[in-house]
Amino acid sequence: MAGIDHLPAVVTGGAFLLAAVFGAVGQRVNFCTMGAISDAASFGDWRRMRMWALAIAVAMAGAAALQSAGLVDFAKSIYTAPRVAWLSMIAGGFLFGFGMTLGSGCGSKTLIRIGGGNLKSLIVLVFIGISAFMALKGLFAVWRVQALDPVRLDLAARTSDLPTVLAVLGVPAAAAAFVPWLLVAGIAAWVFANGAFRATREMIAGGILIGAVVAAGWYLSGHVGFLAEDPATLEEKFIATNSGRMESLSFVAPVAYLLELLIYWTDTSRVLTFGIAAVLGVIAGACAMALATKTFRWESFTTAEDLAHHVAGGILMGFGGVTALGCTIGQGITGLSTLAIGSFLAFFSIVGGCLAALRYQIWRVSRSA
Predict the structure, then answer these.
(1) How do residues 98-126 score in pLDDT, each as one tens digit?
(2) Phi then psi for 237, rounded to 5 degrees?
(3) Quick check: 234 and 246 in contact, CB under 8 A?
(4) Could you tell me which of 212, 172, 195 has the C-alpha nearest to residue 57?
(5) Which residues form the domain of 298?
(6) Which of 137, 147, 302, 329 has its CA 20 to 30 A from that of 25?
(7) How far apart are CA 223 and CA 193, in angstroms?
(8) 83-84 and 153-154 beta bridge pairing
């Protein structure tokens, strides 16, 4: 077993490899949550939405198995805090969903597109990082902390995950414990009820692999990288995480921390973390797959209007993703795998924001015509 001194390298190296798998798979199967919503809303094609749902179900099952085995404790993640900032989840999720539509994809798709040679996505990523950093520590943070975060629901429980909330409401604890598996079974039944989706083996494999990567991220950060007693402080510690808690894949705040690391490179207090390594891993994995399948090609902007929409999208995603505590992956899969009620709020708000942006784009095109 690796010594404590080697744990940061184990955690960040593992995060890079897991994210590289995510990036390669995402590039291969065209995994895109914005595209999934657009396909369903515009063309009635639910296959990519079902792939996203399958990834959620697999991540939920993996997370439930890890917690049942006592390998992780999701009370020590950022998602299940007993104080639920519901307005931040709704507003942040909606802005993120609107922004990802303007920016031609969410945070993960932006990284995948960069790996495939898309320079437009590189610009989007820079603005995601700047906006996210402003929402964490800058001007946007003032607005977030003063106007949104104080509006919250304080639960009389240790955590805000769905089984715990149901138990507080009077559902027997034994019955509440089956909730994760009932959700997994229900989602899986909906996913595979469609014959067109069952015929797409690549999408099935993609959904399973992406969900499994998220669950593996929880194991890496929450078990392998967990110290019950840090020799320096005699307190518990999660190695190499920006939040100081257990983490899995998320692609908004880590982009801000990546920019911070690059800008303050000589400051030894800034180090490589799970999230930063995951951002780099997605780009590397997507690039390797694009090169292997000969789909790598350089792309850039064609009009100033296109540039403006992508910049606005990046800004909205950065602020919205930090405010909602995650993106379509950070909340839409990673957060949902913990069954946190805030993650459900953020998830549906992201979908709502995306649908609103699609309507805006239709209106803009029809007005121009």
Answers:
(1) 999 999 999 999 999 999 999 999 999 99
(2) -150, 140
(3) no
(4) 212
(5) 4-368
(6) 302
(7) 35
(8) antiparallel
Q: Is the dihedral of CA 198, 204, 207, 212 positive or negative?
A: positive
Provide the domain count of the chain: 1
**Inter-axis angle of helices 7-29 and 201-219, nearest 10:** 170
Q: What is the mean pLDDT of each run of 10 residues along the chain (369 residues)?
A: 78 98 98 96 96 98 97 96 96 98 96 97 98 97 96 91 90 88 98 96 98 98 94 90 96 98 94 98 98 96 94 98 97 98 98 97 86
Residue showing tokens 């399973």: 208
Residue type, 37: I
**pLDDT number for residue 2:** 45
pLDDT at 35: 95
Return the pLDDT at 3. Answer: 61
- Its pTM stands at 0.96
Name 118's bridge partners: 299
